[in-house]
Amino acid sequence: MREVNRDAKELLEKALEAHMAGNLQQAIELYKQSIDLQPTAEAYTYMGWAYSMLGDFEKAIELCMKAIELDPDFGNPYNDIGSYLIALGRLDEAVPWLKRAITARRYEPRHYPHMNLARVYLSKGLFKDALLELENAIRLAPDYKPAHVLRHQILAMLN
Length: 159
Description:
By secondary structure, this protein is mainly alpha-helical. The chain has helices at 6-20, 24-37, 41-53, 57-70, 76-87, 91-103, 111-123, 127-140, 145-158. The protein is 77% helix and 0% strand.
C-alpha cells in the first residue's frame, strides 16, 4: 500500500470522529475531502458505511466497489457489501461477498463475515451451516457476545 498523504489521513481521522459522534453528513463531507486529496479504500469504505446508516445501501455498495478497485486485499468493503445486500433482502447475492471478506489478506474483524453468513443461513433455514459459521466467529473472537447469543438461540430452536 502506498504512503497516504498526511492531509488526507488527517481528514479521514476527522471524518471517523464525526462519524462516531453521529454527525453523518459532516463525516461524508470530510470523507469526500480526504478522497479528493488522495483516494483510499478506507475512505470509500467508511463513507459507504455512513451512507448505509442513512439508509442508502445502493450508494454504500457503489462506494465499497470503488474501495475494492483501489485495494482488492482490503476485507472491509467485501463484508460491508454483504451486510448491505442482507439489509436489502438479497441474501443469495450476499454470500460470495462475505466469503471474499473471510479470505481477504488485509482484514481484522474476520469474525464479522462469519456472523453475517450465519444470519443468511439462519434466514434460509440452514441451521447446521449457521452454527458452523458461528463456531468460526467464536473461534476468531471468543468474547464476541452476539455470536454466542445467536448460537444459543439456534440450539434452543433445535431442541
